[in-house]
Amino acid sequence: PPAIFTEADFYQRSFDPQAYLKEYYSLSDSQRGANLFLMQNLRSLHKMFSLDGLRGDTLIDVGCGPTIYQLLSACEHFHEIIALDYTDQNRWELERWLRNEEGAFDWVPVVKYVCELEGDREKWAEKQEKVRKKVKQVLKCDVTKANPTGPVSLPPADCILSTLCLEGACKDLPTFHCALRNIGTLVKPGGHLVLVTVLGETYYAFNNQVFSCLRLEKHEVEVAVEAAGFEVTFSEAQAYTASDERTDCQGVLGLVARRCPS
Ligand code: SAH
Fold first, then answer.
1. pTM higher than 0.85 for the full model?
2. Is 219 strand, coil or helix?
3. Which residues belong to the annotated binding site for S-adenosyl-L-methionine?
4. For residues 140 and 30, what is the distance between their CA atoms, to the nearest angstrom?
5. Sheet (strand 230-239) strand order
6. CATH code for 8-259?
7. CA–CA distance from 165 to each of 10, 118, 176, 183, 251 (Å)?
């Protein structure tokens, strides 16, 4: 692990979105077995967004990075999506794909896999268009700020989603608690939080850069979510047992919670 915790400014300076996508989100047919981590997370998102009540007008994706895989199941249940991330280059990379620009990452194999989970692999082009249409804004945010999108204030959404962000953005457990409270303000009372978090991880690497990660256990995440004013309605950890020199990740937690009425 890095000697110091790599916080937001390190992401801004050193996170290369294209290298990240290539390293963690490639899914060619020949290589399918090699991307267990991604496939496991896609199945977990599929399962969570199939749960009762996970629908509404608006969804906010917090710490979206340059990726869209996390929106593929979600987009079927919400009319509008707003994506938020700290770093400029990640928001630009995402926008490049949304505008279908030359050189944007090829998500087709991933989109096809999710369509297969939903029962019809042939719907991939339709789903891809759905994501492109539904993402209405891509904005800067900082989960460590009381108003994560400040100075902009967004109307609270029906659902917030966050995948693999908070554990990278928070240097310790109190900061993680605080970040959950901060992003909790982005969702309406009675609305949902969908969280995908790695467990037992202290670092992940790509492109000769190492990023630190807050080492979390399942119950620590659940306690933090509840302390932020949510009721946990679904929580499922899956072990990550593949030998992988890029990370010391031990598992992934998929969690759904409902913001308590205020
Ligand atoms: N959600 C994507 C990206 C995860 S990488 C995925 O599932 O693959 C972690 C992301 O967290 C990066 O895009 C980084 O820019 C973002 N991030 C780091 N610190 C942050 C902060 N303080 N506020 C908001 N986003 C932050």
1. yes
2. helix
3. 20, 25, 69, 85, 90, 142-143
4. 36
5. 135-140, 78-85, 56-62, 157-163, 187-199, 251-259, 230-239
6. 3.40.50.150
7. 14, 26, 10, 12, 15
Which residue shows structure tokens 């990379």? Answer: 93
Look up residue 3 and give its two tokens. 């000697």
pLDDT 10s digits, 24-49: 999 876 555 568 899 999 999 999 99
Separation of alpha carbons 65 and 241, rounded Å: 25
Please write the tens of the pLDDT for every residue from 132-171: 999 999 999 999 999 999 999 999 999 999 999 999 999 9
- By C-alpha distance, which of 157, 203, 214, 211 is closest to 184? 157
Q: How do the domains of the chain map onto residue ranges?
A: 8-259
Ligand 1 pocket, Cβ-based, cut-off 6 angstroms: 8, 11, 15, 63-65, 67, 70, 85-87, 90, 141-144, 163-165, 168-169
